[in-house]
């Protein structure tokens, strides 16, 4: 309720601002909140807003874009400010902002990413092949997780709290057990020579940090050697102690002194930290023949184990993310591919001049796996570039992500769309033309709206303009519809037509009953709206009362008014959207998706009577203002208009009554 400046939980309800108290803005705020959450979690403001536009919003809107742009920028700035205050609050004004990467082992002023990520033109087909394979693995992940989710819905339902908690505990137990066993039985490997206390290079590395400041313009042998030492220091960030470097990056666990656990390096650490190691550890010495940090068999084991755990955990009873697991699995696959391509290229060319970058493959592999699971393209490319700093890898990442989406779509939908389908939500995704999908036709292209309408075969539930409160309550209890047509001609079967006078939602009826608005006294035939402007606004506020939900009919106190009548006419939507029965279903689909409709009425009039037409020029704001001014002059003698009840919301409000009084959005 924060977007509406009210909260039922906290009991807050501010009267101002009230511009966001309608369904349209509420949906936009959900998408904007998604963008801000992703941006703050990964430190990627542009990637966050692109994620909301690509996956979180039904269709593109400039309003969502600029408001999401503001939200993500403020959110990431706040996170960076808090990060700096936590590390050193006394030097907050001297600190360099914008150099921290969420998935980086060191800051941008230490790691010059443009020098440590590169690719060759002949590697493009390799990247595409990686994307194709990861598209297949993403489709496999979606298929397996969908079957597991369907099984969960039958045996571990949402209302079975104890079973859901037991499953989460079992997942935690299995994850910890696998990580512990892998670490306990891990092969041991000697730490890099420069990190051994006994070696002369290690002693030099330890003692030279504060002393060596080579000139960037000097070409002497000593300065070059000093620069190499500093480069090796920067490999491990700002840590200035060999023991701390070994503890952070090369933990021994069950290995003897001077060795580290190759399995524990990836398994017995937070998954986000494992992703950082896969993408960055060793990259700064990539061009100088730096030894591989991770054994190939460790990468294979990490890939399959984490793929299994990712498939199992997504969709369980607690919040389990998808981004970091899929990125880590993809980075491990990228490291394996990079190692293989490097060996093959050296054997084929026989020279070390052409040396594929293993960490380039790790970053591209991470993006490809995430694209194979979610089928997003633009947002993933930008998000990976922002979080890893690999700005020069934009073209390979784009090729890989596109290939992953292309192959994955051939076998399944994305994981988000799959879960929406499992939950049965009526999500309307963007329709592609049948020629783009490689099919002869879409089913909706061969149908008319009259062939799928719900009123075919049964009488529609129609409310009279003036109804008894007791009869209205009985209808609300027996019917689960969200809204009802209003007409004095109530049909008894589906073959009878009726004149549509308007549409009113169930929530609006409940609000009217709760605040006893529209109740007619004995002898009164029409409900009279308040003539004073403030009273009218107060009534409008009660009927909207967002985000407070309407009470159920059973909890509303209607003592003394059960036999009274209620007038629905001033509060209904008088001009709901109506189409002919011969309209193609695809057009109705586009109307629902682009206009956010919930209901669409069908008429039998195949040849409606036309009284006029409008063009794009008739919809311009200038012409609308001119017509409104003429209308104001014509109706200047009307007391309702003279009291200023026309508000700035009337132009976009579909629930204005015949008197011109806006009463809220659907």
Shape: elongated
- In DSSP terms (H or I, runs of 4 or more residues), the helix count works out at 24
* Spatial sequence of strands, sheet with the most strands: 5-9-8
Q: Portion of residues in helices?
A: 40-55%
End-to-end C-alpha gap: 18 Å
Show unreliable segments. Answer: 212-218, 434-440, 644-666
Number of strands: 11
Instruction: Please describe the biggest sheet, giving its number of strands, its sense, and whether it closes into a barrel.
Output: 3 strands, antiparallel
The helix-and-strand class reads mainly alpha
Overall mean pLDDT stands at 80
Q: What's the alpha carbon Rg, rounded to whole Å?
A: 32 Å
Query: Into which percentage range does the β-strand content fall?
Result: under 5%
């Amino acid at each position: 309720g924060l977007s509406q400046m009210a909260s039922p939980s906290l009991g807050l309800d501010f009267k101002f601002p009230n511009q966001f108290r309608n369904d349209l803005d509420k949906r936009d705020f959900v998408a904007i909140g998604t963008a801000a959450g992703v941006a703050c979690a990964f430190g990627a403001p542009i990637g966050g807003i692109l994620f909301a536009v690509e996956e979180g919003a039904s269709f593109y809107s400039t309003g969502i874009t600029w408001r999401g742009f503001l939200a993500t920028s403020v959110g990431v700035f706040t996170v960076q400010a808090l990060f700096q205050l936590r590390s050193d609050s006394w030097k907050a004004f001297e600190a360099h902002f914008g150099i921290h990467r969420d998935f980086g082992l060191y800051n941008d002023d230490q790691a010059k990413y443009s020098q440590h990520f590169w690719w060759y033109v002949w590697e493009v087909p390799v990247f595409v092949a990686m994307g194709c394979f990861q598209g297949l693995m993403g489709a496999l992940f979606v298929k397996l997780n969908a079957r597991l989710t369907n099984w969960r819905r039958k045996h571990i339902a949402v209302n079975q709290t104890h079973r859901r908690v037991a499953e989460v505990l079992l997942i935690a137990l299995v994850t910890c057990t696998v990580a512990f066993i892998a670490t306990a039985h891990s092969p041991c490997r000697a730490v890099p020579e420069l990190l051994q206390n006994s070696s002369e290079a290690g002693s030099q590395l330890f003692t030279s940090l504060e002393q060596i400041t080579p000139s960037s313009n000097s070409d002497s042998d000593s300065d070059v050697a000093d620069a190499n030492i500093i480069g090796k220091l920067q490999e491990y960030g700002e840590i200035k102690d060999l023991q701390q470097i070994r503890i952070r990056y090369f933990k021994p666990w069950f290995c003897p002194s001077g060795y580290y656990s190759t399995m524990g390096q990836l398994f017995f650490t937070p998954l986000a930290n494992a992703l950082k190691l896969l993408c960055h550890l060793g990259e700064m010495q990539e061009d100088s023949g730096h030894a591989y940090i991770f054994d190939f068999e460790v990468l294979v084991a990490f890939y399959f184990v984490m793929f299994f755990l990712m498939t199992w955990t997504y969709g369980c009873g607690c919040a389990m993310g998808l981004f970091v697991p899929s990125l880590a699995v993809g980075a491990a696959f990228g490291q394996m591919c990079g190692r293989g391509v490097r060996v093959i290229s050296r054997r084929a060319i026989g020279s070390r001049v052409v040396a594929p970058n293993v960490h380039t493959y790790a970053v591209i592999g991470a993006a490809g796996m995430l694209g194979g699971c979610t089928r997003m393209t633009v947002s993933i490319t930008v998000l990976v570039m922002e979080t890893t700093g690999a700005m020069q890898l934009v073209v390979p990442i784009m090729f890989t992500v596109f290939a992953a989406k292309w192959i994955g779509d051939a076998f399944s939908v994305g994981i988000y769309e799959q879960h929406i389908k499992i939950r049965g939500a009526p999500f309307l995704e963007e329709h592609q033309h049948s020629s783009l999908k490689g099919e002869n036709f879409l089913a909706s292209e061969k149908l008319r709206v009259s062939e799928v309408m719900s009123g075919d075969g049964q009488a529609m539930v129609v409310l009279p303009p003036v109804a008894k409160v007791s009869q209205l309550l009985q209808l609300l209890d027996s019917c689960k519809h969200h809204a009802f047509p209003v007409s004095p001609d109530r049909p008894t079967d589906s073959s009878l037509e009726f004149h549509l006078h308007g549409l009113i939602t169930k929530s609006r009826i409940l609000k009217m009953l709760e605040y006893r608005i529209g109740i007619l006294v004995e002898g009164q035939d029409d409900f009279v709206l308040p003539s004073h402007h403030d009273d009218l606004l107060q009534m409008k506020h009660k009927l909207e009362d967002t985000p407070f939900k309407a009470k159920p009919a059973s909890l509303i106190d209607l003592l003394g008014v059960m036999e009274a009548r209620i007038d629905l006419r001033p509060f209904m939507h008088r001009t709901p959207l109506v189409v002919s029965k011969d309209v193609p279903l695809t057009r109705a689909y586009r109307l629902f998706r682009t206009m956010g409709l919930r209901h669409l009425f069908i008429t039998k009039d195949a040849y409606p009577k036309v009284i006029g037409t409008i063009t794009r020029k008739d919809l311009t704001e200038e012409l609308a203002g001119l017509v409104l001014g003429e209308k104001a002059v014509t109706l200047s003698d009307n007391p309702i208009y003279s009291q200023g009840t026309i508000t700035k919301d009337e132009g976009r409000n579909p629930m204005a009554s015949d008197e011109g009084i806006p009463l809220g959005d659907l």
